[in-house]
Amino acid sequence: GHVVVRHGWVPPRDWEKGAVMPAEEGCALLPQVAHTLGYYWVEYRKDVMGLSNADGFVNERGVVIVSNSMGTSREGMENADCVKDGGIAFNLRRALAERAQTARDGARILMELIDEWGYAPSGRAYTIADKNEAFMFQLVRGRHYVGARVPDDAVVVMPNHYTFHTLSDCPEMFYSKDIVRYAVEKGWYVPKTTDCSDFDFAEAYQGEKTWRHAGNLLRQKHGQRIVLGRDWDIEREGTPFCVYPHKPIDIETLARVMSCHYEGTQDDVDRFGPGRSPHNSPTARRICTGTTLESDLWEFADEPWQTCVYTAFGRPCQVPYLPIHPLMGLPESIKANGSGAELMAHHLERQPGATCANDSAFDRFRRLCGAEEMLHSDVFDGVQPLLREIFAEARRESVEALKLKDAAVRDEAFLQAALAKLEAYAKRKFNMVEVVSASEMRLSTEAAAISVEFA
Question: Regarding beta strands 35-36 and 56-59, do their DSSP bridges make them parallel or antiparallel, or are they unpaired?
């Protein structure tokens, strides 16, 4: 369905005793802690409610929280006993943003919350990172998970399926005490050895419909191909949790990963539609795909307030990454209407009109994406040099913005200049269509004909 992305700042707050976090219908109401941290919040929502499993955060301590779908786990939604009071969904990420002093502290909080309440959705991976460490936990519905501190010289490509295999994939691992025994009891894992040394978490817990899903395998294969600088053979080399490049990976390489469609390989198939776009292929799900609403590259600094998130307000193959320093203030054109605290209080409620298009920077970028999508095969190659040029400028601009007390003003100026440059390019180079008249449209349950004239 139609989803919009909103950006806001939720300030720190003291809470009265007995306060609870509002939750999805049927989920547990978590007790609030006495004091919560302030945080930048990237909200994904529909009119009916905000999404439970998409939002990203960086809090005032410089801790980033993001997540990935795991497809489905084997733990059925009908098993109500595996969670307490319905378990937790959205409020796991909210609690991490409000409470985590460091990434390691966030790992502790996540395990404590899951051990007590259980996770309500079928499966998800959570990444918790700061300037020193990064942790990833892969959750199964209920109270089962495997996690690790990501080794400093490793890169994780998370393709939307479980990628932990043994309980010693990394030097520092975390997992539910009964992770092996439970799989045996449920019949998901039949040991071939007396010491269960052949246990494979991904194989035991991944739902049958999403086990080795072709689209996810391609995402992992090509993400790892780019960061390693060589081909990756899934059949021979498998689907590891992490890989070890021979040199540090720069942010430009990560941008290549996030905008990848497998160009130049045998997996670049099924381009179709008006613009012969790769984004909505039914057989070859790309990394940059039809449901990509926004793309973020988080760059940590020595001081939390210097954290920069390079944001593509749309698919990163169609619009550029722009620098935002959210802990120093938000650019005016990306601020959501209303206070962040008020938006958070009502995130899980219906907000009629929340997804209506307007002239915000997000919507202007989305309109550019829409035009590029319809004209993809004609305009894609021409747009790429412009995106690279703007990103290179963005890298220099980020350094300059940190010299100001009000980096948000400079971030806003750069955002507007980049948007104007893209819109001017589209006006010159795209074979655009203009709507010159349209009959009045009413929202109604009755069928109606709509007349539109194009020039």
Answer: unpaired
By C-alpha distance, which of 127, 136, 123 is closest to 71? 123
Per-residue HEC secondary structure of 238-254 comes to CCCCCECCCCCCCHHHH
CB within 8 Å of 401: residues ≥ 6 apart? 323, 325, 328, 407, 410, 411, 414
- Residue 215: CB atoms within 10 Å: 19
Contact 73, 122 (CB under 8 A): yes
- The Cα 8–Cα 331 span in angstroms is 10
Q: Do you know the residue count of the chain?
A: 455
The β-bridge partners of 4 are: 45
In this structure, what token pair is assigned to residue 326? 């959210």
- What is the token pair recorded at 382? 């021409």
331-390 pLDDT tens trace: 999 998 889 999 999 999 999 888 888 888 989 999 999 999 999 999 999 999 999 999
CA separation for the pair 74, 94 (Å, rounded) = 26
CB-based contact 231:146 (threshold 8 Å): no
* CB-CB contact of 111 with 144 (8 Å): no
Distance between CA atoms of residues 259 and 416, nearest Å: 22
pLDDT for 308-317, tens place per residue? 999 999 999 9
Task: Give me the torsion for CA of 46, 47, 49, 52, rounded to 10°.
Answer: 0
- Among the listed residues 452, 435, 290, the one whose alpha carbon sits nearest the alpha carbon of residue 373: 290
Cα(108)–Cα(94) distance, rounded to whole angstroms?
15
In terms of Cα–Cα distance, which of 130, 103, 110, 99 is closest to 12?
99
